[in-house]
Amino acid sequence: MKKAVLFTCLMATFSVALFAQKKRSPNIIFIYADDLGVGEIGAYGQQKIKTPNLDRLAGEGIRFTNFYTSTPVCAPARCMLLTGRHGGHSYIRGNYELGGFPDSLEGGQMPLPEGTLTVGKMLQQAGYRTAAIGKWGLGMHYSTGNPLLQGFDYFYGYLDQKQAHNFYPSHLWENGRWDSLNNPPMNVHRRLEPAAAKDADFEYYKGKEYSVDAMTRKALRFMQQQGNRPFFLYLPYTIPHVSLQAPDAAVQQYIGQFDEKPYYGQQGYAAAKHPLSTYAAMITYLDAQVGIIMEQIKKMGLDENTVIMFSSDNGATFNGGVDAKFFNSVSGLRGLKMDLYEGGIREPLIARWPGTIPAGRSSALLSVQYDMMATFAAIAGIPAPPNDGISLLPEMTGKRDQQAHRPYIYFEYPEKGGQVAIRMGPWKAIKTGVKANRQIPWQLYNLEQDPAEEKDLAAQHPQMLREFDAIVKKEHRPAHIKEWEFLDPKVPLANKE
Fold first, then answer.
1. Integer Cα distance of 135 and 34 in angstroms
2. pLDDT digit string, tens, across residues 223-232
3. Within 10 Å of residue 177's Cβ, how many Cβ atoms?
4. What is the pLDDT of residue 23?
């Protein structure tokens, strides 16, 4: 009798444990590249740069082909990703820099304000442990933008984007504490004189401890520490944002494959003896980190309970020795970083969740990074707070009949002359140079027929242009600083004399 009771109790305990295991909320890992163009990984057509792990991630999940960042530069893209707001509603809309480049002047960017509801806070409230490891760009640790005050239980990496120009920094930050790395002080914006530069001069831009390796170590440790508790890991790596810096062994894999000449720093950022090889190596190195994360999840037995997603903050850059044309970095699209043309905002989105997301699929669903708040909420099984996005989970999981659709995606960007854009079905309307001329006309492109935005059809569709004007009035909210208010400023245009 006692044995039977004991057996019954053991079976009940096992059943409860099994039920708890099945009911555990899925882990969410969001890997965010920095200045990676939509065409720079193999799954999206890249021919010269090797990305086997990202290609496998796409092959084992879904890749989106009509996916956008919310805005074409670093800090506001991160703000919009984490708050679920588009460029007309976001608190941070541009790279508002504070401080300077030296360690002594580290000041970060405009901080998120107190009380901001981020995806981190949303998931904390749902019982998740949360970590941000990589580049923050939304305020220093002594400000309201401290990631520990903005929904993250753990932070490691760069708080200030300007410090992230150097992949061999003197330090990173861990929960508000300075974490020294084994690297000498370095001015990555120091130029070399082409006529006098020797091989040894390029060694100045190399250190001993690569920041990306430190980030990955911390990410692995965070995952290992969580036990049975679900976690959200936000991994905004700094690759391939210039400077061109990568470990020698990684660069060596590409040397000899390209016809290249040294870059001496004439367009800013670190000089590099093999700029094409270094850039390719950086992306392959990022890919290797994705592989390390995937392998760790497999070792922990969490494959079927972990969603891994990958995207980038904006299109490929135009400076620092990067040759976007050589690598076809934006797949022949118009524009680069800082542009609301397709090359500046079209991005990869890959999602893998074995057993839940069918493998080997692609989706042309019109989607954008401010959809992530709603998507993460759906993955966690909780209601989403008010936001500007839609959940992409039905599309990811093959339940297309349940997928919400939107009439348009709205973009607003105050820098590079002031730009606004709207994607509506196959149509893309865009205005540039709005700060100088608030009456500047719309450009209109049919992206299905003209993905490179070469043939302006605005004159043929006056009714659509009026509709776009109405959308801008509906979606725009006044910015809280005058530098970002270019659509409805309360001051006259600047005197052009």
1. 9
2. 999 999 999 9
3. 10
4. 67
Q: Determine the Cα–Cα distance for residues 293 and 217; give it in Å rounded to an integer.
A: 10
Domains plus CATH for the chain? Answer: 25-402 (3.40.720.10), 409-484 (3.30.1120.10)
What is the reported pLDDT for 380?
Answer: 98
Q: Percent of the chain having pLDDT more than 90?
A: 93
Pairing of strands 129-135, 106-109: unpaired
Whole-model pTM: value is 0.94
Q: 471-474: long-range contacts at Cβ-Cβ below 8 A with a sequence spacing of 24 or more?
A: 471/408, 471/410, 471/422, 472/88, 472/410, 472/420, 472/422
Quick check: 33 and 212 in contact, CB under 8 A? no
pLDDT at 5 over 50: no
Report the C-alpha gap between 421 and 70 in whole angstroms: 11
Q: How far apart, in whole angstroms, are the C-alpha atoms of residue 105 and residue 99?
A: 5
Q: Letter for the amino acid at 378? A: A
As a whole number of angstroms, the distance between CA 345 and CA 410 comes to 12
Question: How do residues 248-297 score in pLDDT, each as one tens digit?
Answer: 999 999 999 999 999 999 999 999 999 999 999 999 999 999 999 999 99
The average pLDDT across 65-93 equals: 98
